[in-house]
Design a protein that fits this description.
Rossmann fold; 2 domains; 10 helices; 8 strands; 50% helix
């Protein structure tokens, strides 16, 4: 194995969820609480990339702490009835890695129970550890805690992990820990995001097959 532990982001890395679930949900929330305001899909991707979802809500839409709580509840209710589909090829990567005795961990801004539900619904192997939105703020990416905790829990060195993510918070977390980072771009074709990732990341994969071939070398 090239890496003992593959650490997957969830949304838009393992499953196709922003375009099909999270963005439509946010627009429905705006329709209710900010009538007339529109957030396009490309804008949503870019702002989630940097500065992140919460800063976007505060800065661009003026959401208060109370309204952010409302948005969170609105989102949780919406997600209950919507399960994203895994990208073709991801299951094969995970199955092959587990068959070799490797670990699969998840570090995401989705809730842990939704991640586990999505893995089960898509026939993915059960992750060995999940770090999601239910963690305290200082234990969510881009804070380095998830990767540091994975290394401690499983007795791994930083060069035994690969962080696989489509957005900057995962990149920032991996850089803070000295962990290899694989940027993936199969969820969108947004030039500024791809440009940043190609310029700053050692590895960039536009197609799932490219990641598969990298891991098999």
């Amino acid at each position: 194995m090239k890496y003992k532990c593959l650490v997957f982001d969830h949304d838009d890395t393992a499953v196709n969820s922003t375009a099909t679930i999270h963005h439509p949900c946010f627009q429905l929330f705006l329709d209710k609480y900010r009538p007339g305001r529109v957030c396009g899909l490309e804008e949503y991707f870019i702002k989630n990339f940097d500065p992140g979802f919460i800063p976007m809500c505060r800065q661009d839409y003026g959401l208060s702490d109370e309204e952010l709580e409302l948005e969170g509840e609105f989102w949780k209710e919406y997600v209950k009835g919507h399960i994203p589909e895994v990208y073709p090829g991801i299951k094969e990567i995970m199955d092959a890695h587990k068959a070799q005795g490797g670990l699969i961990c998840v570090v995401s801004h989705s809730h842990e129970h939704n991640i586990i539900r999505d893995y089960e619904a898509n026939g993915l192997p059960a992750p060995d550890a999940v770090y999601g939105w239910g963690r305290p703020v200082n234990e969510r990416k881009p804070n380095p805690f998830p990767l540091l905790d994975i290394m401690e829990r499983f007795g791994l060195e930083k060069d035994e992990l690969l962080m696989i993510d489509d957005l900057k918070p995962g990149y920032d977390m991996a850089m803070a820990c000295g962990v290899d980072f694989a940027a993936v771009g199969w969820a969108n074709d947004i030039e500024p995001i791809e440009k940043f990732m190609r310029q700053n990341c050692r590895f960039y994969f536009k197609r799932v097959q490219e990641l598969t071939e990298f891991l098999q070398r």
